[in-house]
Amino acid sequence: MSDAARIPRFRRGVRLRYDQVREAWVLLAPEKLYMPDDIAVEILKLVDGNRTIAAIADDLASRFDAPRELIVRDATAALVDLSLRGALEL
Amino acid sequence: MNPIEPPMGLIAELTHRCPLQCAYCSNPVALDSPRGELTTTDWMRVLDQAAGLGILQVHFSGGEPMARADLVQLVAHATRAGLYTNIITSGVLLSDAAMRDLLGAGIDHIQLSFQDAVMAEGDRFGGYRGGHARKLEAARRIREAGLPLTANFVIHRQNVGRVEAMIALGEELQAERIEIAHVQYYGWALLNRAALLPSREQLDAANAVVAAARARLAGRIAIDYVVPDYHAARPKACMGGWGNRFINISPTGKALPCHAAETLPDLVFPSVRDMSLKTIWTDSDAFQRFRGTGWMPAPCRTCDRREIDWGGCRCQALALAGDAAATDPACAKSPHHARMAEAVAATVDAPLDLIPRRMRRVADA
Description:
heterodimer; A: 90 residues; alpha+beta; three-stranded antiparallel β-sheet; two-stranded antiparallel sheet; 3 helices; 20% strand; B: 365 residues; alpha/beta; nine-stranded mixed β-sheet; 13 helices; 9 strands; 33% helix
């Protein structure tokens, strides 16, 4: 299976939420905390346990002015990185 | 000077009471008496202030946080305030009823400590007969509740050879995270250092086991590995920098930049009974003293790692260099770095006897 066909889902105890104090999205995980950048936030908002990476990239490509190939590559890299840190399953 | 960013985490040391007696406990040797502990109302106020200040996660710790009768109430309060809640526990008090109540209160995660992979040794290091078996039960309850589990193993000279078995136990318990943490030498652990410090060979062997397990479990179980400073060339960023990410509240309500900070002289730690967390974080001398880079001595001041390790640990600088404002002796650039190797050398023929953590030390009785 290619990486783009994988379905990312947050692991148990991992939550994406908006922090009013910092006016920023934060990803809260067991004894970990991530401050995703703007691009990562857009990717993570689409992680719902149903969509594949390819579907996430399609959604982003329809809204942002960037080549789909590039979006697939960036989204895959970001999601694989978070899966290695234990925040996501792929 | 940059504006002060809000803190990320609150470490709520609810009590120093604990059924276990681990000789490497990170609590201070002078433990807080139960009589002076903050009340439920005090803690609720602190949790509200924490959320308002921008704290995102609260770590209920101790001692044994489950020894507090109001833990469930405090977890529920923290959840309502929007905080991510974590309990750092020995697990020996985690009954079915306690698990159900914590789940109802909205607990997000539990870190369960193990003293070894082997029952007899775990019970011996914890000083609690039957403790290891209770921990296995606790792990099962956490799993069945559908909560994420971190299995924490503290390692030292007397159990470091069983790291592989510890990781295997973590896998068997289906932990999401495994923490393999070399003892950090403060408080009780510093007192027992000669019987706990691993040799270079032991450390190298453990490093290799952890590296292999990380590769094998990548994407499935994350292994966090905390190394001992005594064999290091660079210090750790203690607490992610002084007054940079965390506030630690002691059982009696003192606000500390790290849990061992009470060993530092000339610092007055404000109490949450008298001052708001916001004032403590932004204005108190205790939190300003070693914040950022302005306080740094040479060689830290000009070091390109000064905002990576923040000069290391102030408590270790005091304990080993005699000056809390010195470069952490864990750093090879410290003029006192040789003291780390001297401490390791002194362990070679040292007896393995351990002084157990108790409210009153036997020697003082």
